[in-house]
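seq as requested:
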Amino acid sequence: MTDRILRVRALMRLGKYQRALDEVVELRPTTSDEDALLRALESVCHSLAGSAEMARRVLAQVRPQELPLAVQFEIAYARFLIGWSQGSVESMEAALASVDVESEPTLYGSWLYASSWLAGAQERYADQVVLLERACKHVSEHPEARDVTLLAHATQSLTHLVREIAAPEAYEFVQQMAETLPWTDDLKTERFLTLRGLAWANALRGSHERALEYAYASRDLAPSQRWITACYADQAYLARMAGQQCSAEAMLRHAVKNALAMDWQCTSEERIALLNLIELTVDDDLEGAQRLLTLYDEITAPLAKRLALAHDRRLKAMENYVRGGVYAAAGRRFDAIELLREAYFTFESIQYGWRAASAAMLLHSITDDRTWLQRAGEAVAGFSESSVARDIQRRAAALDDTRLSSMTRAQRRVFDLLCEGLPDKAIAESLGISPETVKNHAAKVRSIFGVRSRSALIATMHQKSA
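struct tokens:
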């Protein structure tokens, strides 16, 4: 029986829930403890497969009795997942409180990991970071609790959070975990998502070369064509953050072409790649951004209930931010402001700093209300080396500099790209004008600032924004 149960657990870890259920049905328990354990495992399979009601029915078959602590924990975990699937924080909390496993190393790591899910469901994301780090350390430090699959899942979740929340110690820790974890073939998807998250986390802390290395490595592991397109979108975004405008534009065109030709009807989170592409596209190609938004809106498949984004406000805030940007570009000012305000206050309330800052920056662009620029600066404080922070500093400096207000719109666009370090040819390609026109605008800009060289101009603006 023990070997058969281990096989069931192995199938569950591989995400093969129906096969695991088939195995459970064939097993014939010889004791009440075994029967309770099998019912708990069966319930967990149903929850992870998306059938919370069936999970509840199966678990209801377990009779109240004295059970070993390990079986008690399996039952509590099954109850926890039912609560998760139903969006009931109270049920999740009650399930975890029903069993005390702190003195049992083989169970405590899983309890900490489940507790991190509870913190996430309560939108306590800073606490979730702490719990995930504790889970990883506990499992790593207790040989009898060693569970590579749990470590992989916890590392993936922690990576996502340090991409969003300024948590310096956790950021360093999760990079070490990602580099030292013995990733097996069955954890390819988890490794892919971890490396993809680390690419963003590094870029948002100014480590652009390392970010692109992680991005390339993740693309090599992408488990589907949709995820490959998501990687192209990532690389376009990261290249733009790094000031590599030509690379960003080339990758963006490729990503958009792929995205428009692809079927996005899926229950996983690949769809978020479309939101990234819309954000990247909208400033220079409103029609293309609107086509991508229509493609996104045509997705009817709901997100799988096992995904955290299916249960909270984060995805809605991302959608509001991107849709608000499209509405702003299309001249729908009132609608844009309403959506962007909702996005900002959601991101701000859950400490997603750089996202809150991006929403506030866009609100400032639309309203010219300096309060939004101030809020953007406050929100991005934890990501001071990010391109978002640089944009905020540059805009704040521009508001106080009459030389900038004296420029024409065309001169200002050339000036912005000059400050990013782009050569004339790249600026011409980005703006769709001739290199000679770029040179004429650049000369006028240098004259306005009283400098003779591009390097002197950049140095002047860096001093201004410092």
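The chain has 26 helices and no strands.
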